[in-house]
Design goal:
With 638 residues, the chain is mostly helical. The chain has 25 helices and seven strands. The longest helix is centred in the middle third of the chain and has 30 residues.
């Protein structure tokens, strides 16, 4: 099966990374391999895009080439008589560790199963993420296309590379949620590896993994296809490499990996680089103490070139279409327009409130009123448009959505664990590395909330902070477990228990529907095609009718899109079996810069549009189907 090729390519890179050390650190090697795998993914996809070869054969050859390279390295390694170490032996560390491993494995596998059963069905995935993947697959290239929303072209493509490869290899969206789950697994492994570098016991490392696994936002996202987990993975991977450099003799190799991780983070979610900057400065200072200015600056230049190489395709396409590397207006729209001590306090408090969605409304109301009161005392507007975007300030109701879930219990644990680490350092019971990590972690979060505008749906942007906090929490729980037998493990299991609703009842994809937190349909009893419309059930009938009309014809049908605003686009691709070659779908009318890519000689069989007021809107076409005044389908006259 073609889908095995990327997985085999990763395994080869994992074995290679582990064998770069005499005593392999297989968790660190796992993350190193993911970074290398991500670099191959981006560069190979960009190459295939240049020659319009993003089809099953081209993608299969690309991943087959990586497998071949790994095989040739293996032959070389064995022929020179080197010992080949494999990450296949499980070393038991006692009953407690074994129990934690079993529980972790079970919990981590649940989102994989959920993501395999359910298709991508969040609103953001269907009107943006999966729609652009479908366009790329149809065009066999990532080149820009005429688009109703320019974000389909100019937004960073990082998370889309992996989804596109699996989409093309399998000829369906069955594995489109898999990359986010892999990123989830990578975050867990990275947290364990960082905790291990800081001296955590095997139990402490597992407790770090439990903390990471139980983050509600992460659990909800792990079965979907949004870009938050992939960006979190690359930031956490960068941070791991920063501290792994001290433990590994392969300096150049690890610095190269750090640059790759930063580049992957940039092309996935550019604003998450704010989390990287404090750790990057720390790495720079550490290297200055060990190497000359010239070598450090030369290494930094090489790192920038690596980032530019990874982002080259994305930036080049944007320059060709828009004359700029990035959508500057969209970027600055997310940044605070004023920064002062008052706005800093405002943003810290309001972002904290995104994770104060408690199971009792009285507590939420009290916190919300106190925050509003602080703003009144400071003499500033809690909804100041210069620091607010997308809605008015309020604490979100408790929910299990992948887009708005908060992490209240984890917030509390982070604050307590941070105080414990500070106290241990002051008593000289903890080394400087842990307090340095804690300081950088907190600095990165403060920088992020200071720079970025508050928004009601901003909680998932904080996922990186929660993940990089997990090693600290795990270390503290490990200490507690040693001093008060099994208390640390008990608290970790409590965190898992608290997060259980996000494991089995994600709002958009519930295994077990729980009113009023989820939509009423279970993914176990609902047909897959209906699951596209879990969040918009009133749309299902119309989209099914469109698909039936289009597919009623025996030949390949050309469907044009004419919309003034973004709409629920991906179900059109999925239900009309575009990836199987039954339809060809393109925008026929757009107003943005991408209108240069319109095909003037396009002959359509159907037009799907929101221009439904006049039957004469499209000469040569009759209205075939309507959905109120929202959407309608025109069919070409015979």
């Amino acid at each position: 099966m073609a889908i095995l090729l990327p997985l085999l390519g990763f395994v080869g890179l994992w074995i290679y990374s582990g064998n770069t050390r005499r005593e392999p650190n297989w968790r660190a090697a796992f993350i190193q391999a993911l970074i290398l795998w991500g670099a191959w993914l981006v560069l190979s996809t960009e190459f295939l895009s240049l020659i319009s070869a993003i089809h099953r054969t081209g993608v299969s050859v690309s991943w087959g080439t990586l497998v071949l390279i790994n095989a040739l390295w293996l032959i070389y390694w064995l022929r020179k008589g080197s010992v080949l170490r494999l990450p296949v032996v499980y070393h038991s560390r006692g009953r407690k560790v074994a129990l934690l491993d079993v529980v972790l494995s079970m919990v981590i596998l649940v989102p994989l199963v959920v993501g395999f059963i359910a298709p991508p069905n969040s609103t953001e995935a269907m009107d943006f993420g999966m729609s652009r993947v479908a366009h790329w697959a149809q065009n066999e290239s990532m080149r820009h296309f005429a688009a109703g929303s320019e974000a389909l072209n100019n937004a960073p493509p990082g998370a889309g590379y992996a989804i596109l490869n699996f989409y093309v290899l399998t000829g369906s969206d069955r594995w489109s949620n898999f990359p986010a789950w892999v990123a989830f697994l990578g975050c867990v492994e990275a947290a364990m590896a960082i905790a291990g570098l800081f001296g955590a016991t095997p139990t402490g490392q597992r407790l770090s993994a439990v903390v990471t696994t139980s983050i509600p936002t992460g659990l909800a996202l792990a079965s979907g296809c949004l870009d938050d987990l992939p960006s979190c993975l690359w930031v956490t991977a960068f941070i791991l490499i920063v501290f792994f450099v001290d433990k590994d003799k392969n300096l150049e190799f690890n610095l190269m990996l750090a640059a790759v991780a930063a580049g992957l983070a940039f092309i996935t979610k550019p604003l998450t680089l704010v989390f990287i900057v404090p750790f990057g400065i720390y790495l720079f200072i550490v290297q200055l103490r060990r190497q000359s200015w010239f070598r450090v600056l030369a290494g930094g230049l090489v790192g920038l070139l690596i980032v530019a190489l990874l982002a080259g395709g994305f930036i080049g396409r944007n320059f060709a279409t828009y004359g700029t590397a990035y959508d500057i207006d969209a970027y600055f729209a997310d940044l605070n327009e004023t920064i002062s001590w008052k706005t800093t306090v405002s943003n810290v408090l309001r972002n904290f409130a995104l994770h104060a969605n408690l199971p009792f409304s009285q507590g939420e109301s009290w916190i919300e009123l106190r925050i509003i009161d602080v703003h009144e005392r400071m003499g500033i507007d809690v909804n100041d448009p210069r620091t607010t975007r997308g809605g008015k300030f309020e604490i979100p109701v408790l929910n299990t959505s992948e887009q708005t879930s908060g992490n209240p219990f984890h917030w509390l644990v982070i604050m307590i664990a941070s105080l414990v680490v500070i106290a241990a350092w002051r008593r000289k019971e903890s080394d400087r590395t842990k307090i340095t990590y804690l300081g950088l972690m907190l600095a990165s979060y403060i920088a992020f909330v200071v720079l970025r505008k508050w928004r009601p749906t901003g909680s998932r942007w904080h996922l990186t902070f929660f993940v990089i906090s997990s090693p600290i929490i795990g270390i503290v729980l490990g200490w507690l477990d040693q001093k008060r037998r099994n208390l640390g493990a008990a608290l970790a299991f409590l965190m898992l228990l608290v997060s259980l609703p996000w494991l089995v009842a994600v709002q958009e994809r519930p295994l077990i529907p729980i009113e009023p937190y989820t939509y009423p349909k279970s993914i176990l009893t609902t047909p897959r095609e209906s699951l596209y419309f879990t969040t918009v059930p009133n749309e299902e009938h119309f989209y099914r009718e469109v698909a039936d009309r289009v597919l009623a014809k025996s030949s390949k049908q050309r469907l044009s899109l004419v919309f003034d605003t973004p709409f629920l686009e991906y179900p059109v691709w999925a239900l009309t079996r575009n990836v199987e070659g039954d339809t060809e779908i393109e925008y026929q009318w757009v107003t943005g810069a991408s209108q240069k890519y319109l095909r003037t000689a396009l002959e359509s069989d159907f037009i799907l549009t929101n221009r439904c007021l006049s039957s004469e809107a499209f000469p040569g076409f009759d209205i075939e189907l309507t959905s109120g005044l929202d959407k309608c389908l025109y069919a070409a006259k015979n």
